[in-house]
Amino acid sequence: MSNRAHVALAILVALAIVGIIRLVRRGHLKAKYSLLWLSLGGIMLVIAAVPGLLDWTAERLGIYYQPTLLILLGLALILLIIVHFSYELTLMESRIRTLAEQSALLQHRIACLEEEQQQSQEEDDTDGDASGAGGSTAG
Amino acid sequence: MFNGENFGVIGGPNTKRGLVIIPAYNEQEALPGTLADLRALAPEFDVVIIDDGSSDDTVSAALRSGAVCIKLPFNLGIGGALRTGFRYAVDNGYTRALQFDADGQHDASQIHALMDALDAGANMVVGSRFAGVGDYRVSRSRRIAMRLLRWSIRRLAGQKFTDTSSGFRAFDAPVLHLFANDYPIEYMDSVEALVMACRAGFDVREVPVTMHERAGGQASNSHLRLSYHYLRLLVSLASTPRRKPTRKPADAAGTIPS
């Protein structure tokens, strides 16, 4: 790649990295996820900053058109990140489901407890002093 | 003296009683009839309805008939509704439970046939449409798909089933425990659950039953949807883990907290 291309790449990557860091500082992006993107940016930055690196590696790997390596590398990392997201999404979905089920069960349980409490209060009121067995018909 | 007598459902010991779990999604029309049938034909069972985020009046239909109704905050699909029901059964100490459809296609009088099989030592019993009794019909393409599915299940489960998608099932305590923690969430959950139970080493049996035409609601039968779920199911079945038989069906009955 030409020097001009290297400079352009370096500027673009630097801008992207600054953008990611700003998102993290504002709390819009979790540091956990920013690491993925920052490491992608870091690799790109090294490639942009060391002009001979890409050409040298491509030659070693038998790639005749050097920018292909850049694209290949970027694509591989992006796919990795996407797989990671699917993983996180699966985990999140199963947690949300469990929470929803639990909240439904708890809601029902609270309603039952409230009813039970109310009934026992009513029974206390009506029974007064006579704590006989007659209260069972109340309902 | 006041005690939880009339509230035995809450945390009380229900070792003698069985629970009927009815997942319901927009079943306001069919549900009252189903519940009336249950009360008439299987009055000794407690009933819990899991409302799967219905947008119609399913909840009030359930409450009006005096059944316990648990309302999920949004639609989880039948698998999620069932798992909630299994969890409820385990939490409340039921040692056996039934899965029953809200739409009226199952026959409440046949519950006892499933229970007899549990009594005979099965851990899980499936009411099968195709095991002899009944005159239930399905379309040709569906029959072919079901046949292929049955073949792969036979290989995975190591056992032959005639009706893998039947939602008319009975479970004993160890199976309830398994499913309360881990139940397939997607459509066609019944097939996956069957394989899971077999692979966990449980004794799963089939009992012939008749089924009615659906009384109300809508069946999800779009071909594209079915194909998608069919493919997803094959991937899912192929990756069902063979569980370590940590929970021996026979021993586990004793370990269930009452």
TrEMBL record, chain A:
This is Unannotated protein. InterPro entries: DUF2304. The chain crosses the membrane at residues 6-24, 36-58, 64-87. It holds the Pfam family DUF2304. Residues 116-128 have a biased composition (Acidic residues). The lineage of its organism: unclassified sequences, metagenomes, ecological metagenomes. Residues 116-139 are annotated as: Disordered. The keyword Transmembrane applies. Keywords: Membrane, Transmembrane, Transmembrane helix.
From TrEMBL, chain B:
CDD domains: DPM_DPG-synthase_like. Residues 20-172 form the Glycosyltransferase 2-like domain. InterPro entries: Glyco_trans_2-like, Nucleotide-diphossugar_trans. Gene3D superfamilies: Spore Coat Polysaccharide Biosynthesis Protein SpsA, Chain A (3.90.550.10). It holds the Pfam family Glycos_transf_2. GO terms for biological process: protein N-linked glycosylation. This is Unannotated protein. It comes from freshwater metagenome. The lineage of its organism: unclassified sequences, metagenomes, ecological metagenomes.
